[in-house]
Design a protein that fits this description.
Length: 331
């Protein structure tokens, strides 16, 4: 498969996507970034044409599939261009900062049958796969509580990685709410299968005192009454700290490991699971994205899924800014 990479300076490209595409046997036929220095730095090991104009790349190379990245505020424009060209693409989350505009694009992509995939990679974790299969079999039960946290290290690393726009709320949307929040919110929507009726969010910038927040705590209330709590931050001195928990009337899943663990069932038995963890999840996501595209199947998560998530993120941002709970009308 002939793949082009747009926005190659995004840190996930060099860290995750280039190795995963190579392992999956995809041919990277062209790379793009508006910053020529970033292109030379990030893609030094790729023997293919390089472009600073993504439209010229698309015109001249005509790839089968595009892996697209950009500063968050520019993502929706890029997605609109790709959809107008009927160019199949993957895009990093959050795909923009304006949920209504992304929602309109999701409708257009669906109507015009443009294949899309969004990197809501948490759907591939071992615990989520186990719960998803139970849900599909009608054995997950009725959820009553959800919790998911992801605490990361200093945001100053983004300056070191050449993506200082991540510290600019106009370009990034915000801090960890916009970086990690999509995963936390998406798994609530994906597993609980309930619309969010209201959102309340609290943020602070007490550690680094930057224009973006250091930490965000989000409370999601579903229309059925279930409460979901998400917490994301840049407050770890180093590395990451994660925790995931879902409780239903049939089982409980919880712990710091997203790849392997044990489901505790209400009948007193246990069900072990094992699957992708944080070290392997992007590799699995890339391989499945390529497989689904080649097979003509929808991706695990599409632009429509991201639009739902972005709507909740926007409500969380409004709540944090106003100090009040934000109610969402039924979609």
């Amino acid at each position: 498969m002939r793949v082009a990479i747009l926005g190659a300076s995004h840190w996930h490209v060099d860290l995750y996507y280039v190795p995963a595409l190579a392992k999956a046997g995809a041919e990277v036929v062209a790379v793009h970034d508006p910053d020529e220095k970033a292109l030379n730095r990030v893609c030094a090991g790729l023997d293919c044409p390089r472009y600073t104009d993504h439209q010229k790349l698309l015109d001249e190379v005509a790839p089968d599939l595009v892996f697209a990245h950009a500063p968050h505020a520019h993502m929706t424009d890029l997605a609109a261009d790709l959809i107008a060209r009927h160019q199949p693409f993957h895009m990093e989350k959050p795909m923009g900062t304006d949920w209504a505009r992304l929602d309109a694009l999701a409708v257009k992509a669906s109507t015009e049958k443009v294949w899309t995939s969004v990197a809501l990679v948490s759907r591939y974790y071992g615990v989520v796969e186990a719960l998803r299969k139970l849900k599909e079999a009608g054995e997950l039960g009725t959820p009553c509580h959800y919790y998911h946290s992801l605490f990361a290290g200093s945001p100053l690393r983004y300056d070191d990685w050449g993506v200082g726009w991540m510290l600019d709320p106009e370009l990034a949307g915000g801090g960890p709410l916009w970086n990690f929040g999509p995963h936390v919110i998406d798994l609530f929507l994906h597993l609980v299968d309930d619309d969010v009726a209201s959102v309340q969010c609290w943020t602070n910038s007490n550690v680094y005192k930057l224009a973006i927040e250091d930490q965000a705590s989000i409370r999601l209330t579903g229309r059925s009454g279930i409460v979901g709590i998400g917490e994301v931050s840049y407050t770890m001195p180093s590395s990451y700290e994660r925790f995931f928990s879902l409780t239903t009337d049939a089982l409980h899943a919880g712990g710091p490991e997203m790849g392997c663990g044990t489901l505790l069932l209400r009948d007193g038995t246990e069900s072990p699971y094992e699957g992708p963890d944080s070290d392997t999840v992007y590799e699995v996501y890339v391989a499945d994205t390529l497989r689904a595209f080649e097979a003509g199947e929808p991706a695990r998560a599409t632009i429509r899924d991201m639009a739902r998530v972005l709507r909740v993120m926007a409500a969380a941002k409004t709540s944090a800014e106003t100090g009040v709970e934000v109610e969402l009308r039924k979609a």
